[in-house]
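Below is a complete specimen:
___
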Amino acid sequence: MNGMNLVPAYPEIALLLSTLGILVIDMFLPRGKRIVTWVLSLFAVLLCAGLCLRLLSATGTTYTFEHMFVSDPLSGMLKLCTCLAMFATLLYSRCHIDERGMTGGFIGGEFYILALFSMLGQMIVISGANFLVLYLGVELMSLPLYALVAMRRNDIRVSEAAIKYFILGMLGSGFFLYGISMLYGATGTLELAEMLQACTQGDINETVLVFGVVFVVAGMAFKLGVAPFHMWVPDVYEGAPTPVTLLIGGMPKLAAFALFFRMLVEGMWPLAFSWQQMLMVMAVLSMLVGNITALRQTNLKRMLAYSGIAHGGFILLGMLSGVFKGAVLQHTVNGWSAALFYAVAYVLVFSGAIGLILAMSRSGFEAEQLDDMRGLNKRSPWLAFIMLLFMLSMTGLPPLIGFYAKLSVLQAVIAADRVWLAIVAIVLSVVGAFYYLNVVRLMYFEEPADTEKIIMPVEVRIMLALNGLAVLILGILPGNLMNWCESVIYRALSHSLSEGVIISVLSYS
């Protein structure tokens, strides 16, 4: 179905109208009443999640806005996960931003408004079926984040992080846009389906097309934060206010996965062996740079930044594992579903780890140094156990979700007959285990550096408990989530690619 059917875009429309309404209401709220903005933002996210659930019941694929916007099972899943991640982010962040004056005086409730606009951009990226829509979605996702990083203007670290994030973000957007222009020049279209058809027919300037792919992948790598386009990640994670670090490092990973899938699979699948080589180099570099550099970090947020670079490399491993000579459709499904599972697992664990840092912080104190974890078990055994779950999950130890995520990616890599790549990933994961287990050592075997009692709101305590429980349960029983990932990837591939196109590419030597 095409034309102007608005039903597939109901979640985005509801989120946009809700955000605009909250913006108007916030203008008239007196100082000290920003909790109203917070509550309304939570309701807006829940409304959006409810509409995403309704769309999930529709198993087919629907296009609207002149074939520029798609609603399919993959978009439904990613949007629902985005809503859940945003809901957790808002719960974790309220007290922190209130105590630091980020919702008072002349600032108001801009944190919540900008966060919702960034979420809207991510949802547009997830459903983009046209290069122009994808680019606009990326910019709508990124611009509010640039502003959020710079909210605490009296902090020199914040100013430095904001400038670096903005400049390098614009550089990534420039790469992305230039690549799109080259792809348009080579194929004469911006629609993913038409570009796929043009690539399949082969009646195009292949040199221009490959250069376009290189620039597009480089631009996407900036947004995912993988090496060698990772320069902004550690400084921005460390310098940004901790709630903004959560916004930057969590949900955008889901939008980045959708961006890679829409462009590389639904738009440029016949060029798989061109973009696959780039993903392979970026994956190895990301795991190497991320894990090695994280060993020497003393700032917990900076350590998690380099950790995120390494985990981004694992996501790329899954993406590239579905393409090799002699593969069948199931291999492609296994690779991309493993990458999707890994992205969801990472967002879940990362959100919990940053949420715990926010829970430990208080006015005048940011619990973002590794030394702040010293003796946490003696101060709060419950918090120490939750952090233990997150660190062991990131390490990849059973029975937590991180173990099954890494295992599924490694299985896809080995099935692609790239055993050497799996060995490299395992060795670098063992290296990475050191800095995760170092956090555990500090919590359980060191004396507390701070003896002040940790006080947190009840909603943060409940959210942390649910977050830790999800990491444990989905690690013990990962089958349902993995089956869901495989189902949405299979249906997306079956709809966008004909069997002939898949076979012709996978049989290429």
Notes: The chain has a mean pLDDT of 86. Strands lie at 62-64, 69-71.
